[in-house]
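Help needed: design a sequence for this.
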């Protein structure tokens, strides 16, 4: 039987993705690099490309939500 994992289509909340078992590719290493570089970034991506989710991940990171 195939593994039927849920895809987080249209979900912008990192907490909801983690708590409800959706598929998530961890890119925290890249977020860490962005923060440590000290440079400013302009996030220019197409619609529905994960900008809001990225900000949600960063918020959870800074709030210290290690359980996520």
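Sure. Designed sequence:
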């Amino acid at each position: 039987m195939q593994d039927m994992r849920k895809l987080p289509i249209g979900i912008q909340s990192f907490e909801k993705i983690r708590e409800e078992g959706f598929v998530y590719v961890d890119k925290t290493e890249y977020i860490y690099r962005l923060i440590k570089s000290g440079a400013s970034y302009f996030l220019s991506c197409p619609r529905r490309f994960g900008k809001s989710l990225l900000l949600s991940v960063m918020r959870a990171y800074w709030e210290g939500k290690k359980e996520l």
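The chain has three helices and no strands.
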